[in-house]
Design brief:
The structure holds 2 protein chains of 2 kinds. In chain A, α1 packs across α5. Chain A has a single domain, classed as 2-Layer Sandwich (Muramoyl-pentapeptide Carboxypeptidase, domain 2), CATH 3.30.1380.20. By secondary structure, chain A is an alpha+beta fold. In chain A, strands 1-2-4-3 form a 4-stranded antiparallel beta sheet, with helices on one face. Chain B is of the alpha+beta class. Helix content of chain B is 40%, strand content 23%. Chain B contains 5 helices and 5 strands; from the N terminus they run ββαβββαααα. In chain B, strands 2-1-5-4-3 form a 5-stranded antiparallel beta sheet, with helices on both faces. The chains are: A alpha+beta, B alpha+beta. At the A-B interface, α2 of A face α1 and α3 of B. Chain B: Belongs to the TRAPP small subunits family. Sedlin subfamily. Chain B: This is Trafficking protein particle complex subunit 2-like protein.
């Protein structure tokens, strides 16, 4: 419990830092945060996947991400995973942990146009990208805030995705 | 013990250590990449059962005086160990698997270093230490075992092969 709180504080101050540094530019701040997440996800996936069996294919990997990794990262399972079986996955988390903090402090509903809120999911965005890339599936991840949760859309690129 | 240790990401050699500066190790490593890929593809086929999806892939192929073993993590990092024929007689599969697991753990610790840039050469002291322990580990002992064909090793060694 303590480490979660510490992580939340760290995450908040990193977001705060990049937000102040790039006052006018949400894009740049998001890119920085996403890069940090990518690097973390890259190393973390190596460590966390060590004790599990090998994953058969793309879907198997994404399932593993939703079931086991998500609990590790955000302390809960995802609410919904959808796929078109052509490399696009949509993960919906109805109570996204890193957003709950901002929600309670700001005491108002999450607004997808609020620039600070988009910054709060940039790190997780990169995290997912890093994990999947290291697992052998380079992808593009976009995230949007829906009501109180987040919807991540993952597009796996099958051309570069081999090995 | 092992006379060559190699770590590869895809086809890029990010770490190589060999007992002698010999070119043939490089040939052997490159020749084994295809076999590793082949084995992984077979294991990840939908028909294979879950138990068969171990990271340790066993003996890849024996050449004149060497035996080559492979291990591929779920992130497709390839580890290759080459043993001389004479020393590998006393080694059993579980022992080699253990060696690979130590190497894998050392690799994980190494890339978790925030100053390490992914996909570049591994230059970590601790990783070197682990590799050294895999390579030079009790050479007189292994030769003694090879001669006596006993499978037990005194408790001073880092890896204790289980008597099977």
């Amino acid at each position: 419990m303590v480490d979660e709180t510490l992580f939340d504080y760290l995450h908040m101050s990193i977001v705060e830092h990049y937000n102040n540094e790039n006052e006018s530019d949400v894009e740049t701040a998001s890119a920085y945060l996403s890069q940090i997440g990518y690097r973390v996800g890259y190393s973390l996936s190596e460590r966390l996947s060590k004790d599990n069996a090998r994953y058969r294919d793309e879907l198997d990997t994404v399932k593993y991400l939703c079931k086991e990794l998500w609990i590790c990262l955000f302390k809960r399972q995802v609410d919904n995973l959808r796929t078109n079986h052509q490399g696009v996955y949509v993960i919906h988390d109805g109570r996204f942990r890193l957003l709950q903090q901002t929600l309670t402090t700001m005491n108002k509903p999450i607004d997808s146009n609020n620039r600070l809120h988009t910054l709060y999911i940039a790190y997780s965005n990169g995290l997912l990208r890093g994990i999947l890339t290291n697992m052998g599936y380079p992808c593009r991840v976009t995230a949007e805030i829906v009501d109180f949760g987040v919807r991540f859309q993952i597009e796996v690129n099958p051309v570069v995705g081999q090995k | 013990m092992a006379c060559c240790v190699a770590v590869l990401i895809k086809e890029n050699l990010i770490y190589l250590r060999r007992s002698a500066e010999e070119l043939k190790f490089l040939f052997l490593i490159h020749a084994s990449i295809d076999i590793l890929d082949d084995k992984v593809n077979q294991l990840t086929k939908p028909t294979s059962d879950r138990d068969a999806r171990d990271f340790y892939l066993g003996l890849l192929y024996p050449v004149e005086e060497y035996k080559i073993y492979g291990y591929v993590s779920s992130t497709r990092v390839k580890f290759i160990l080459i043993f001389e024929h004479s020393t590998s007689i006393s080694l059993k599969d579980p022992d080699i698997k253990l060696l690979f697991q130590r190497l894998h753990q050392a690799y994980i610790d190494c890339i978790s270093n925030p100053f390490y840039e992914p996909n570049t050469q591994l230059k970590s002291k601790r990783f070197e230490q682990v590799v050294t322990s895999l390579m030079v580990q009790n050479d007189p002992l292994t030769s003694a075992i090879a001669s006596s064909q006993a499978s037990s090793v005194p408790s001073t060694s880092v890896i204790v092969p289980t008597a099977i």
